Amino acid sequence: MKKVKYLVHSLKNFQEMGTVIRSGAAMCRKMSQFIRKTDDLIIVELGAGDGAITSYILEAMSPDARLFVFEINPELCDVIAKIDDHRVILINDGAQNMLSHLTKYHITEVDTIISAIPFLVLPDDLTQEILLLSKKLLKRGGMFIQMHYVQSIKKMYKTIFGNVETYFVPLNIPPGYVFRCEKDQINI
Ligand SMILES: C[S@@+](CC[C@H](N)C(=O)[O-])C[C@H]1O[C@@H](n2cnc3c(N)ncnc32)[C@H](O)[C@@H]1O
Question: Are 78 and 54 a contacting pair, CB within 8 Å?
Fold first, then answer.
């Protein structure tokens, strides 16, 4: 999607988008760098927008892996649908409905979840629902990776996942943070 169109779209849908600029290359690289090429076979992307991070995830993934992409906005899904890669399964629905979609593909657990959902502008109960569901779906040792433009929200991830590592991405506009949580080996 062209920059100006993306800006207009983001302004119209700010309550879902949470920003007016798509992630830049530095942010996309950071978000996808944790993918374990040989081990991560089921990857989920939440809040893909027009696919800025999606292509980086695809590059980092194994040829045998699958990427389930959840994006709530149909107009943005039309852009992602143009990605010509058999590993992508695009789902035009909210992340809160992940379980029923993944079940249709006989997926019961996932290796890594990469999210750009703007939890800061979402209702608290929806945020909790998506994060708890993400934790439930991750296999033990699985990773939840999330971007934000503020660091203060970090404690929410610590509370839910029990651990969180922070990475500052100064070269994004605006500069942002990537939080990486691992599903604990013991704590379910
Ligand atoms: C900040 S944009 C990120 C877009 C892109 N991933 C990027 O980094 O440039 C957040 C995206 O999350 C989507 N979104 C918001 N709530 C969602 C939900 N409950 N489930 C799935 N996607 C959602 C919005 O439509 C929007 O495209």
Answer: no
- What mean pLDDT comes out for the span 155-167? 96
For atom 12 of ligand 1, which residue has the closest CA? Answer: 47
For CA atoms 130, 132, 137, 142, the dihedral sign is: positive
Q: Is 116 in the pocket of ligand 1 (CB under 6 A)?
A: yes
Residue 184 — very low, low, confident or very high, per pLDDT cuts 50/70/90?
A: confident
Neighbour tally for 136: CB within 10 Å: 12
* Ligand 1 atom at minimal distance to the Cα of residue 19: 1
Query: CB–CB of 45/54 below 8 Å?
Result: yes
Q: Are strands 176-182 and 138-148 parallel, antiparallel or unpaired?
A: antiparallel
- The span from the CA of 182 to the CA of 142, in Å, is 6
Q: For domain 3-182, give its CATH number from 3.60.21.10, 3.90.180.10, 3.40.50.150, 1.10.8.80.
A: 3.40.50.150
pTM for this model (two decimals): 0.93
21-24 long-range contacts, CB within 8 A, separation 24+: 21/173, 21/174, 22/49, 22/50, 22/52, 23/49, 23/52, 23/53, 23/116, 23/147, 23/172, 23/176, 24/171, 24/172, 24/173
Q: What is the whole-number distance in angstroms between the Cα of residue 186 and the centre of ligand 1?
A: 31
